[in-house]
Design brief:
OB fold (Dihydrolipoamide Acetyltransferase, E2P); 3 domains; 7-stranded mixed β-sheet; 8 helices; single chain; 5-stranded mixed beta barrel; globular; alpha+beta; 461 residues; Rossmann fold
């Protein structure tokens, strides 16, 4: 069958400098970027030219196929590993390299932690202009099967989608061969062809290097066992509903596990239990909507939350403000170490759950306020000089309006939690400019097998 693609899918004119389209080159990979890409250099004349190649590792010599030239670097697809890293391991997921969710399944976990720590230190230096010792990355108790929330999606309008994976959209047979070369003993699914894993109605995640194409994901290796058990039935239900015309476009599904059950309704109220070390009265119990933001690796949460609270209380502050408090995770976890605690959150529904959670956990020294974005600290009677502030903003970091208010409040200490160290280091420059000094940096790997991690910075006046 002849497939005619719409004009919008036509390739842009290729910039053929310094490499021709699909030119194959050999290079040594020297480092990993914070996006999880292997980076190497080739000599052009008397200068080195940067080439980024996904799914390759430092110390490897590889053959790669160039598909895009930028002003000062090129991007290439891996073709063959000529000399493999001793830290390369078989990826357990047959979709690794095709699904865009994981970047590091081919890298031994201790090395993942080492590289993530190094990347934080490099971002500190390059984006904040600081050379500062970074604590060893705290590893997750589970390397796989840890993720308690996934959001697969589908597009009912597109039907059988255009084949291809990754930045260069290699056809499945070529992609299959590429990743067998990259990972010689490619998991236990060595006989599974990638082309066999793409049904006419894919439900899953974005393909590696694409913005629209979806790769079908019948099982996610980093998700919990409970989620994977529920996923099979949900996929059958969704396909039946789509066949009946229920989805004219598409949708994003939700599977969230807590308390031994998996919720698939965005408005389901769920309860997460966190066994805080040394906490009287048992685990911290938090109720919230399944759709609400909440950390997705419950197995590392006790140590993570305890560290944030400990850093805040070590400042000697009597009072604590938890900005972006959500349903009260950090505020309630740290409350025993302070005289009074205030959580501030723009979402009124999250504030209602935080108040309910305080009462349910017997925390009487915490109040929760629905704050206006233009006046986050309005109504607080805590003196800034005797207050610590916990900040856990969205991935984009703190906006300027929030930082102005924070610096005007002038707390004694700030514990800044971020899932994107790059935006965190950008904001760090503003803290330094406002007179704060960095006292500790401790990363936590809440996202094994991926390029993501949480980083906790402690700042003091």
């Amino acid at each position: 069958m002849l497939l005619i693609l719409p004009a919008v899918l036509k390739k842009k004119k290729f910039n053929d400098r310094p490499f021709a389209y699909h030119q194959e080159i050999e290079l040594e990979i020297t480092t990993l970027t914070n996006r999880g890409l292997g980076l190497g250099r080739v000599t052009l004349g008397d200068q080195g030219w940067v080439v980024m190649v996904p799914f390759t590792l430092p110390g490897e010599r590889v053959r790669a196929r160039v598909y895009r030239n930028h002003k000062n670097y090129s991007e290439a697809d891996p073709v063959e590993v000529l000399s493999a890293s001793p830290h390369r391991i078989p990826a357990p997921c047959p979709l690794f390299g095709r699904c865009g969710g994981c970047q590091y399944q081919h890298l031994a976990y201790p090395e993942q932690l080492a590289w993530k720590g190094r990347q934080v230190a490099e971002l500190l230096e390059h984006l904040a202009g600081l050379s500062f010792p970074v604590d060893p990355v705290v590893g997750s108790p589970r390397e796989f099967g840890y993720r308690s929330k996934i959001t697969p999606h589908f597009d009912a309008r597109r039907g059988n989608q255009k084949e291809g994976v990754g930045s260069e959209n290699l056809i499945p047979q070529v992609q299959d061969q590429v990743f067998r070369n990259l990972t010689p003993s490619f998991a236990s699914a060595a006989e599974v062809k990638f082309s066999d894993l793409t049904p006419s109605f894919p439900i899953g995640f974005l393909r590696q290097g694409t913005r629209n194409d979806i790769v079908d994901v019948p099982r996610c290796e980093i998700a919990t066992a409970g989620i994977n058990e529920r996923l099979a039935g949900l996929r059958t239900e969704v396909r039946a509903r789509a066949a009946a015309g229920e989805f004219p476009r598409g949708a994003t599904l939700l599977l969230r596990e807590a308390g031994g059950s998996v919720a698939t309704d965005y408005d389901t109220v769920i309860t997460e239990e966190i066994g805080m070390p040394g906490r009287a009265g048992g685990p911290l119990r938090l109720r919230f909507l399944a759709r609400d933001f909440f950390q997705n690796n419950p197995f590392i949460l006790p140590e993570f939350v305890a560290h944030v609270g400990s850093e805040a209380s070590a400042s000697g502050a009597r009072f604590l403000v938890d900005a972006y408090c959500g349903s009260g995770l950090f505020a309630l976890g740290a409350a025993p170490a302070f005289e009074r605690v205030a959580g501030v959150e723009i979402s009124a529904t999250s504030v209602a759950f935080a108040r309910e959670n305080a009462a349910a956990n017997g925390v009487s020294n915490a109040v929760f306020l629905a704050g206006d974005a233009a006046a986050i600290f309005a109504g607080l009677d805590f003196p800034g000089a005797d207050t610590a502030v916990i900040v856990d903003p969205p991935r984009k970091g703190c906006d300027e309006a929030f930082l102005r208010q924070l610096f005007a409040f002038r707390p004694r200490a700030v514990v800044y939690v971020s899932c994107d160290p790059a935006t965190q280091m950008r904001d760090l420059r503003h803290f330094v400019g406002a007179g704060y000094r960095l006292t500790r940096v401790r990363p936590f790997d809440l996202f094994p097998q991926t390029r993501h991690l949480e980083c906790v910075m402690t700042l003091a006046l």
